[in-house]
Amino acid sequence: MNPGPGTIVDTKISRDELFDFFLVPQSVGQGTVTPTHYNVLEFSTTLKPDHLQKIAYKLCHIYFNWTGTIRVPAMCQYAHKLAFLVGQSLHRDPSPRLANLLYYL
Fold first, then answer.
1. Phi and psi at residue 24, to the nearest 5°
2. E strand segments, 1-105
């Protein structure tokens, strides 16, 4: 039996020294659902952790290229798609001006 969509685990199997959680964003009709592991690098907001987890879940529903729910928030999927397309299209080294920036993220 798979956990339902929106299931969040942030205790027991998560790390004590980090703010991380596991989220099951979608249901599967066949096989086993795989939760997505989130690591929050900086949490300097007045939001409660529960609200951040709900936002992550809701952002998995707004990807326009798919009618259902995806495993990661939409902006992460868009960034992945853009990086793939740039990697396939541009066949040259990146600009030296980008050397000290996180351009690959």
1. -100, 100
2. 7-9, 19-24, 36-40
| CA-angle at 46, arms to 9 and 37, nearest 5° | 25
**Region of poorest pLDDT, from 13-17, 32-36, 80-84:** 13-17
User: Which residues lie across from 22 on neighbouring strands?
Assistant: 9, 37
Q: Is 21 helix (H, G, I), strand (E, B) or coil?
A: strand
pLDDT at 99: 75
Q: How far apart are CA 10 and CA 49, in angstroms?
A: 10
Q: What is the mean predicted confidence (pLDDT) over 69-95?
A: 88
Helical (H) or strand (E) element with 36: strand 36-40
The mean predicted confidence, pLDDT, of the chain is: 88
CB 21 within 8 A of CB 14: yes
